[in-house]
Amino acid sequence: MILVVLENQRGIIHDFSLQAIVAGQQFANEYNCPLNILCLGENADNLKNQASKYECDSIIIAEHNLIKEYTSDGFSKALSDVIQDKKPQFTIMGHSYMARDFLPRVSVKQDIPFISDLTSVNFQNEKIVFSKQVFNAKFLTNIELDPNVKSAILSFQSSAFSKDKLIFGTPKNIEKFNLSLDKEDIRIVSQEPFKETSSDVDLSSSEFIVTVGRGIESEDNLPIMEKFVDAIGADLGSSRPVVDMGILPKSRLVGSSGHTVAPNLYLAVGLSGAIQHVVAMKGSEKIMAINTDRDAPIFEVADYAVIGDLFDIIPELTRKISED
Ligand SMILES: Cc1cc2nc3c(=O)[nH]c(=O)nc-3n(C[C@H](O)[C@H](O)[C@H](O)COP(=O)(O)OP(=O)(O)OC[C@H]3O[C@@H](n4cnc5c(N)ncnc54)[C@H](O)[C@@H]3O)c2cc1C
Hints:
Blueprint: E1 2-5, E2 8-9, E3 12-13, H1 15-31, E4 35-40, H2 44-51, E5 58-62, H3 72-86, E6 90-94, H4 97-110, E7 114-124, E8 127-134, E9 139-144, E10 152-156, E11 173-176, E12 208-212, H5 222-232, E13 235-238, H6 240-244, E14 265-269, H7 275-278, E15 286-291, H8 298-301, E16 304-307, H9 310-323
């Protein structure tokens, strides 16, 4: 059995979890085994309603007063109990902050491996080989699962699976799982609801991002970009120097020290494409870059290259779009 664990993002299924369902559907197909989807915590019933349109065998609802708010103690105990009972071959989540926080505890509680932040999986007859980036994404490594391992927890990096490949259907079964949690199980006090960012924008689930780099030069020039993103309906991201200069807040940072993003379109404006940046946006569906330097490394990952000065191109584009 394959178990996909859903994450609640302010009342809706987190985008990473939709990708995890795709992973679960592919694993279930490969191993010819049932797929179960687990809805945990306060919004479990709500998540169940949203998940009911995807092909799976069973949706499991696990609610309890003590996991109304997310805590790593509560969620790890709850998931650990479900794994203990259902004995899934693979437990799958998107590699979100929450997954990073509580899945290692489940791994320890159940004494099963947690293979994290995977970028792809390759089914080779009896073998299963996972890939992940290492050394700040300079290398890709393959991990082969020991055939004696009967159960493992996996988390997949954003865009390892595309939610466009979701198979729609109706779950055959919906079941309630009785959790037995005691107050003593929860030693952590929640401060505030878990969020991916402290701003109103969650870049990790944006569909269209325009990111500005050091080419913007100073805060005085920021309105050029703000007018542009307003006109085209995109979210504004930032490279690290722009955050370090205080032009944009850290919640806008894309890169190894900020968000990992995978929008449908990523437009990189006046940024060079350093590895620490590229590692977190190269999973985007389409990448376009505007840069004065035709040898800028960003063009190595871009689908479309515009060689030119952002101070000429962006205001002109904004004007044209606003006219239409
Ligand atoms: C541990 C560590 C973590 C890091 N984490 C991150 C991270 O999370 N995110 C991140 O982004 N960086 C990160 N960095 C920094 C990273 O190494 C680069 O320094 C940074 O990404 C460069 O930002 P940039 O592309 O905006 O600036 P630059 O490298 O200076 O590039 C500016 C680009 O703008 C172009 N340009 C200039 N003027 C114009 C114009 N008028 N029109 C068009 N193009 C123009 C230039 O040709 C140049 O290519 C990290 C570094 C370290 C060591």
